[in-house]
Amino acid sequence: MHFASNIKFLRKRRGRTQDDVAVALNLKRSTLSGYENGVAQPGIEVLVSFSRYFNISIDTMLKIDMSKLSESQLGELERGYDAYVRGSNLRVLTTTVSEENQENIELVPEKAKAGYTTGYADPEYIGELPRFRLPFLSDKRKYRTFQLKGDSMLPIPDGAWVTGEFVQDWREILNGKAYVVFTINDGIVFKIVENNLKNDGRLVLYSLNPVYEPYEVHINEVKEIWKFVNYISSEIPEPVLPEKQLIQAVAAMKNDLERIKAKIGKDITDVKEVN
């Protein structure tokens, strides 16, 4: 365990005093000193606070001696491009299997989403979720299905069930593709993703519905990412006009507008003549 040496190393690297860090994390200076000297062990809430403060994952702070990393490696960590993001250390995904030892597809209904934010790593919670199988999906990959809420991804309708493939290595996230992204702050969202991990350790999330503005999430906020595979819905999506029909519709609107403008102009002329 390298937590004690790492928080001291990170504090000095950033030019912070023990008082600075203690105040920022709402700790006593003596408590912080105890953590740095290894005579006191932090609880999970304190670990999360340190992780957010230094923008470094808990796994890295516990398991990697950061003082032995090169400057380029440290730079990657500080930009959020963690070794754990690259998949060099496997994420442990809690899952269920059938009697034939095949991966199930667990269903996460809308009413279960709140529980998922705390129970996603709990085998008992995951074991209580409904489950099923789709024979046309690979037995060698892990899938999970989440129920959508809202209209941000129209024409995929509210209440649709979106199935995603678990993404182990976040470097494989492709720009412009749809993913289910699970973060502690925002919960489960279904978005089109722009991958900026290499540049600044962030993902930009876009909705299909242009009413909703895109927003960024730092990779340290992300817990799981699932690549869109398919969706199931009892509703038929709104039709999309073919290009030719769309051009004709726009042309018709223009003609109507010209007729309206011409009529308005004639009416104004008639009024002037009467006066």
Keywords, separated by commas or semicolons:
275 residues, 434 Repressor (Amino-terminal Domain), nine-stranded mixed beta sheet
Structure, described:
This protein is α+β, with helices and mostly antiparallel strands and 275 residues long. It folds into three domains: 3-78, 434 Repressor (Amino-terminal Domain); 105-232, Ribbon (Umud Fragment, subunit A), CATH 2.10.109.10; 241-275. It is 37% helix and 20% strand. It has helices at 3-13, 18-24, 29-37, 44-54, 58-63, 71-78, 113-119, 123-128, 197-200, 243-274, and strands spanning 105-108, 131-132, 143-147, 161-166, 177-183, 187-196, 202-206, 215-218, 222-232. A nine-stranded mixed beta sheet has the order 2-1-3-4-9-5-6-7-8. The longest helix is centred in the C-terminal third of the chain and has 32 residues, at 243-274. It is extended, with a radius of gyration of 27 Å. The N and C termini lie far apart (94 Å). 21% of the residues are buried. The model has no long low-confidence stretch (mean pLDDT 84).
Helix and strand layout, with pairings?
Layout lengths: L2 H11 L4 H7 L4 H9 L6 H11 L3 H6 L7 H8 L26 E4 L4 H7 L3 H6 L2 E2 L10 E5 L13 E6 L10 E7 L3 E10 H4 L1 E5 L8 E4 L3 E11 L10 H32 L1
Parallel strand pairs: 1-3
Antiparallel strand pairs: 1-2, 3-4, 4-9, 5-6, 5-9, 6-7, 7-8
